[in-house]
Amino acid sequence: MGNPCEPGSGDSKAKTVKQSMVTISQVMMPHHANPAGSIHGGVIMQMVDNAAGVVAARHTRSNVVTVSVDQIDFFNPSFIGTLVVIKASINLVGNTSMEIGARVEAENLMTGKVIHVVSAYLTFVALSTDYKSMKVCPLILETSEEKRRNMEAQERRSARLAAFQKKNRKVEKAERPHSPVNYWNKDKT
């Protein structure tokens, strides 16, 4: 499968924010909580990462990986029995990366009261079938809200890149020992 964002692929058009946005909901159960009945932050973080990953995959129609969580702010706790709703959408597209914003709310199903639980910004990279970063389709900004989010995302990206340069990190590339698809499909003799 080729890159759908490369010229000549037949699907190299820019995409709107609406084409990839997602809302995911889940009722919080006892296994999501600590002994006090509040939901573990890690559970919420995993749900945010999953929702943001869906947005990135929808935009690129490829495998995607989380490369950074730029910011995650917890404003209120959520509890067993609440409906946690994650709304995620793409804020910014770079050459091979995307910033996804997520807002988490918790609804008390007995009263209908909704509270803001978490806001987060994650960066994803699209991967080709050989696990190399690949070009991402451009983004069409249709509303003033989308344009505002894009401008704020550009500022976060600039700050993130400056911090990365300051650290002067040298990242060693990991070798992939096998493809998960090939591993599960290979003959076991």
Low-confidence stretches: none
Per DSSP, the total helix count is 3
Under CATH, the topology can be stated as Thiol Ester Dehydrase, Chain A
CATH homologous superfamily identity: Hotdog Thioesterase
Helix content: 25-40%
Highest CATH level, the class? Alpha Beta
Under the CATH scheme, the architecture is Roll
Number of strands: 7
Overall spatial form: globular
**Strand order in the sheet with the most strands:** 2-4-5-6-3
Question: Radius of gyration, Cα only, in angstroms?
Answer: 19 Å
State the secondary-structure class: alpha+beta
In this structure, how is the largest beta sheet organized? 5 strands, antiparallel
Strand content: 25-35%
First and last CA, distance: 30 Å
Return the average pLDDT rounded to an integer.
Answer: 87
**What number of structural domains do the residues give?**
1
SSE blueprint:
Layout: E1 15-16, E2 22-27, H1 41-60, E3 63-74, E4 83-93, E5 97-107, E6 114-127, E7 139-140, H2 144-167, H3 180-185
Parallel strand pairs: 1-7
Antiparallel strand pairs: 2-4, 3-6, 4-5, 5-6
Structure notes:
The chain is α+β, with helices and mostly antiparallel strands and about 190 residues long. Helix content is about 25%, strand content about 30%. The protein has a single domain, classed as Thiol Ester Dehydrase, Chain A (Roll), CATH 3.10.129.10. It contains three helices and seven strands, in the order ββαβββββαα.
